[in-house]
Specification:
By secondary structure, this protein is an alpha/beta fold. About 30% of the residues lie in helices and about 20% in strands. Bound molecules: adenosine-5'-triphosphate.
């Protein structure tokens, strides 16, 4: 996974402008189909991205409906994080257009928040203050409300150092959600967690997404995670979308559901077929 750098860190903590008409954090937008009046629409047209002459993404066309949950899978080095960084405005495409709600990408902080593999909490701030980093005005009731949604109300006054890895990621999730994003970008946020904590976090993210209706793009190596969480799964290989599959299984998704197993098998087989064509 590539680093997001200082720019991302600073932008992550920037508050949405005053008067911005955000849906209340207790809103309920996303239906079973993932359609939402609140989530951002995303459109990529003819996107090319190279590093040092090496094509990473090319001729990428993609439309994401408001409120849809997309998982991006693929072999290591296939360009998943690059796609996420392009959506966040942290990288510019060499060619092509990327629009969020019909406007060119303007960066993290306003409508877009991100969650990384590491929670990136400030150790000298309490849990509550970490959630509220960069916010001004009367943010505490809102931050406490969101901490309640991730099950950490009673830890609000503690230091991050005493939390478990899963609890730290819950704080990071609260910090992302308190900004009421229209687009949530998840760059393998659960990959460092143990299996049980990971399952609990998947459930939490899926439930909160259903409740709030934000559009979500999750980069993951874990095909089960992709099928459990996403309405639609993209597989990137050789800079292109090698598979674009809708998930027929209804939320909450049960691994025992035959549709779940069929889709998981299909994605895994496709990954095996691709054979690491990028040579990485
Ligand atoms: N800033 C950069 N400068 C040069 N090359 C880069 C840069 N960012 C990414 N790359 C290269 O682009 C390719 C795709 O990287 P990317 O991080 O998008 O892959 P990924 O699919 O997210 O990989 P992983 O699953 O291992 O995290 C890799 O070959 C990587 O080395």
């Amino acid at each position: 996974m590539s680093g997001w750098g200082q720019l991302a860190e600073e932008a992550l903590y920037t508050e949405a402008p005053a008067g911005d008409k955000r849906r209340a954090v207790s809103g309920n937008d996303a239906g079973q189909s993932g359609e939402s009046l609140f989530g951002a629409s995303v459109r990529l047209q003819g996107v090319h991205k190279s590093f040092g002459g090496k094509k990473v993404l090319h001729e990428l066309d993609l439309t994401i409906r408001p409120g849809q949950f997309i998982a991006v899978a693929g072999r290591s080095g296939s360009g998943k994080s690059t796609l996420l960084r392009l959506l966040a405005g942290l990288e510019k495409p060499a060619e092509g257009r990327i629009e969020i709600d019909g406007r060119p990408v303007s960066g993290i902080g306003r409508d877009i928040t991100v969650m990384f593999q590491e929670a990136r909490l400030l150790p000298w701030k309490t849990v509550l203050d970490n959630v509220g980093i960069g916010l001004s005005g009367n943010w505490r009731p809102r931050a406490l409300h969101v901490l309640g949604q991730v099950g950490l109300t009673d830890r609000a006054g503690e230091w991050p150092g005493v939390l478990s890895g899963g609890q730290k990621q819950r704080v990071a999730l609260a910090r992302a959600l308190v900004r009421q994003p229209k687009l949530l970008l998840l760059d393998e946020p659960l990959s460092a967690l143990d299996a049980l904590t990971r399952l609990e976090m998947q459930q939490l993210i899926g439930t909160l997404r259903q409740r709030h209706g934000f559009t979500t793009v999750l980069v993951t190596h874990d095909v089960s995670e992709a099928v459990r969480l996403a309405d639609r799964i993209l597989l990137i290989e050789d800079g292109k979308i090698a598979l674009d599959a809708d998930n027929p299984a209804p939320w909450p998704r049960d691994q025992a559901n035959p549709e779940f197993a069929r889709l998981e098998k299909r994605v895994l087989e496709r990954i095996m077929q691709t054979g690491g064509g990028n040579g990485r």
